[in-house]
Amino acid sequence: MASPSEAPVSASGTSVPQVSYRDAPPLITPVFEVGGLSVFYGDHEAVRDVNMTIGGRQITAMIGPSGCGKSTVIRCFNRMNDLIPTARVAGKIRYHDEDLYGRDVDPIEVRRRIGMVFQKPNPFPKSIYDNIAYGPRVGGFKGDLDDLVEETLTHAALWDEVKDKLKTSALALSGGQQQRLCIARTIAVKPEVILMDEPCSALDPIATAKIEDLMEHLAQEFTIVVVTHNMQQAARVSHRTAFFTTDVGAEGERHGRLIEYDETARIFSNPSDQRTEDYITGRVG
Ligand SMILES: Nc1ncnc2c1ncn2[C@@H]1O[C@H](COP(=O)(O)OP(=O)(O)OP(=O)(O)O)[C@@H](O)[C@H]1O
Known about the structure:
Elements: E1 30-41, E2 44-55, E3 59-63, H1 70-76, E4 87-95, E5 98-99, H2 107-113, E6 114-117, H3 128-138, H4 145-155, H5 159-162, H6 175-188, E7 193-197, H7 205-218, E8 223-227, H8 231-237, E9 240-248, E10 254-263, H9 264-269, H10 274-280
The structure holds adenosine-5'-triphosphate.
């Protein structure tokens, strides 16, 4: 992780988050290239014409008011929208220069390589150990499972808290521990990308801080895309930020649009679009 740079002064001088922003690594190794992406639910075009490139081993945050399509877009990155019968995706998402929605692409393999962590911690109703071991077992892992479980829980900064109760139910953990377990479960199958859809919204500030520390640590190895309602969080953890909002057409139709996508320092200190400025300063949204 690049060392944080000094927080630039807000262009507006108003209440933008005052944090040290991270230096954004260059986008020389794109993981996702999104072109003309639109997502429909039935006849409703929920998100229109999104274009963005997401770089490897960095954290990309998606922010914007409720209903602007952040979850809809993040779900496209591992084809979770395939599971919604009315959803239809148009446009292109290239993953390492391959069409993610290509005819020969197996969505199950996509979801192994591109894992997802949800808003509400959702451990399996199994032991802590089995939560981690489940994915590797199903995937035919041949190595030492005990070692893998320890290594994975250590990686997710949870080992010390759970090493003496690996056989107890994951549901007995606190919410924050459950969420770190879900992150551990995701990384146990060695994905490249971790998608996080509001991973801290059900957690208290201390548990949230632990997840943010973990994200920073994991970004050395994984590509992370995170949807968050918490602008402070986006400012603290991400290298790049995408701001979405809802456009209202002449007939009252509403479409989510990507308004601005840039280095996080730039979005929060000197955005180029007035709508971004209004949102991050709390004037709208
Ligand atoms: N399964 C679905 N079926 C039909 N419409 C949906 C579905 N999921 C989302 N939508 C609609 O798509 C639009 C974008 O919703 P989405 O949940 O992606 O926004 P969001 O920015 O993530 O919102 P929030 O911040 O409140 O979670 C909204 O109009 C929403 O009602």
